[in-house]
Amino acid sequence: MAEGSEAERGYHYGVIARAIEELDAAGGARLSLEDLAARLGMSAAHFQRVFTRWVGVSPKRYQQYLALNHARALLAERFTVLDAAQEAGLSGGGRLHDLFLRWEAMTPGEYAKGAAGLVIYWGWFDSPFGPAIVMGTDRGLCGMGFAADMGAEVAFEDLRKRWPKATFVENSERLRDWVAAAFGAASSGEPAPLYLIGAPFQLKVWEALLQVPSGHVTTYSEIARAIGRPTAMRAVGTAVGRNPVSWLIPCHRALAKSGQLGGYHWGLPVKRAMLAYEAARADVA
Length: 285
Description:
Blueprint: H1 6-25, H2 33-39, H3 44-55, H4 59-66, H5 70-77, H6 82-87, E1 101-105, H7 108-112, E2 119-127, E3 130-137, E4 140-146, H8 152-160, E5 167-170, H9 172-182, E6 192-196, H10 200-209, E7 218-219, H11 220-226, H12 233-241, E8 254-255, H13 268-284
Parallel strand pairs: 1-6, 2-5, 7-8
Antiparallel strand pairs: 2-3, 3-4
Helix pairs in contact: 1-3, 2-3, 4-13, 11-12
């Protein structure tokens, strides 16, 4: 993760989001560093520093990761077959291959009660992808959403209404260390625990997503096949969209078989930025 304060990270994502808009407006034409910086109202030197601090590569190199056809290139070069990932031991409740996580799931009986009696803490944090609403229980993070596209009020309510009988308490400090771990900035080395709250079918889909390595992608049809429901692609797509812990459960790594990005609950610019961020960092690792 880029260094700097939370406020700086939020600012950096704002620059990236604007860069995506300008690159799209250019219709695929390659813009020079000076041209792109000028469109953003920044000096070339300042723009170079923001880009490099955010992801670790130069703006010139980074443009390929933001390109509209980048998803197709990822499918061709970095497609993950989930059965192979599972056999390699990349999933489950231990330490994952690309995220220092541990996770457990609410039982079906608990979920059926609408999270009655559960206390969920929440707070706002700046992230590499703009303002993030984060929620968690005593057992781990249960919700993470991004407000850059839909706005803070809508993003908060989107998560809150998923667990209608829970008690919500604002407490950013209780979540801060977990959030730092989630974005790779923890100093303690402690994992970011996840507490997954969902229906049994959703949990299967989310477990499959956890098998996709950072910098790689898979397809909705591959997820359906991996969970033993090859004809349930529409249901899989719905479950992917209902993933409550975005980024950590990497729903942004699920693409349409055609190479289209598909939908993204928190906005397609956020999804593109996440894929580009991971691909660029994988190439410089």
